[in-house]
Amino acid sequence: MICRKHFTRPTALIICLVLILGLFFAAPAHAADAYSVRVDGKLLSLDVSPAMVNSRLMVPFRPIFEALGVTRMSYDESTRTVYASGADVSISLRVGTTQAYVNGRARTLDAAPFIANGRVLVPLRFVSESLGATADYDAPSRTALINSPGYTKPADPVGASKESDLLLFNVYIEAGTRTSSWTGTGVVIHSSGIILTNRHVVEGSLTFLHSYIGDQLYTGYELFTVNRARDYAIYKITLGRNDPPLSAPIFGDSSSVAVGDSVYTCGNPEGVRDQTARGTVLSISNSDPNSPGSYITSARARPGSSGSGLYDSNFRLIGVVWGHDIYDNSLAVPLHYIIRQIREAIDYYAAAKAA
User: Fold this and answer.
1) Which of 41, 66, 244, 269 is buried most, with the most CB atoms less than 10 Å from its CB?
2) What separation in angstroms does the CA of 170 have from each of 9, 194, 213?
3) For the structural domain made of 169-244, what CATH number should be given?
């Protein structure tokens, strides 16, 4: 009624159209501003999240430097200066300025520290410059990766160098209840037996879930997480004591995928095992936070393709197929919607193995 009283019909139509387009192109509601930090592979518990400011990732000073052995810290409110020291390093920096001192030597920061919710945030680059650590930013998982000078990073997944290598990661799934059974696809995401698939492939009152990787059958499993909105699930198969580690793909940067990019899928369409398909990205939509996925590709998909891995032109995993349209184009969830849960699953099972 308000619109009718105060706006002419053309104006009202324009406003309504703008509102509709605003909803259509709205960013997904998936904590887009949330970042995390790992030090020597371990996820830090932070009471203040890192922040991206002018293309610079700013990270909380105290918890990160404490994790790297800088344990004596103080803050002078009158000068807004942070003092910190460890076994062989002393640091001072002022909030709001780009000047800092490390062991008495002046350093110029690429962004000025600031305070957020009582915590001083500094540029990620300063961590490596002041302590000799390595500091990188993993865009797909929105994670700062910091390694101390003496840390030995575990070997990365072998990954794939050609299309046929994708078969190493493909999982043929047979699942069922007391009244029905079906087949689907999964993709190995960690050498310990962690599998990514669709929620609708593994959810329900299952009486069995069989996972075939190559000629090997795995019947034991544990469901780690299920997400209805994005239609994905993560579970872990039970490897035998003498079973070798599984091959797993390298994760790609799904946030940089563009229309026209070449992609591959690997799955089990209509129960036919270990099938790859090539295609291109036809469209990318981030409009609906409740939609399972936002990639449409010309790589062919059919019933049974659900849970197939979607790979970029370098055979890095960038998503998981959840369905197909009337033209058999594949529909896929981008990996950046799932990567946090994948990391959590890897950490969970690594901790359980160490316990």
Assistant:
1) 269
2) 56, 12, 6
3) 2.40.10.10
- Angstrom distance (rounded) from CA 320 to CA 187: 8
Reduced to 3 DSSP states, what percent helix, strand and coil does the chain have, rounded to the nearest 5?
Answer: 20, 40, 40
Tell me if 335 sits within 8 A of 140, measured CB to CB.
Answer: yes
The DSSP bridge partners found for residue 201 are none
What 3-state class would DSSP assign to 80? coil
**Residue 34 pLDDT > 70, yes or no?**
yes
Cα distance between residue 335 and residue 58, in whole Å: 24
Query: Do strands 72-76 and 81-85 pair parallel, antiparallel, or not at all (unpaired)?
Result: antiparallel
pLDDT of res. 154? 62
Q: What is the DSSP string of 103-171?
A: TTEEEE-SS--EEETTEEEEEHHHHHHHH--EEEEETTTTEEEEE-TT--PPPPP---SSGGGGGGGEE
d(CA 283, CA 71): 50
Mean pLDDT of 337-349: 90
Query: Rounded CA gap, 196 and 193, in Å?
Result: 10
Q: Quick one: average pLDDT of 273-295?
A: 80
Which CATH number is 36-147 given?
Answer: 3.30.457.10
Distance separating alpha carbons of residues 322 and 142, to the nearest angstrom: 23
CA 148 to chain centre: 23
Q: Confirm whether 36-147 and 169-244 share one CATH topology.
A: no
Q: What is the pTM of this model?
A: 0.66
Q: Residue ranges of the domains in the chain?
A: 36-147, 169-244
**For residue 52, pLDDT beyond 70:** yes
Strand arrangement, sheet containing 105-108: 72-76, 81-85, 90-94, 99-102, 105-108
Residue at 147: amino acid letter? N
Average pLDDT score over the chain: 85
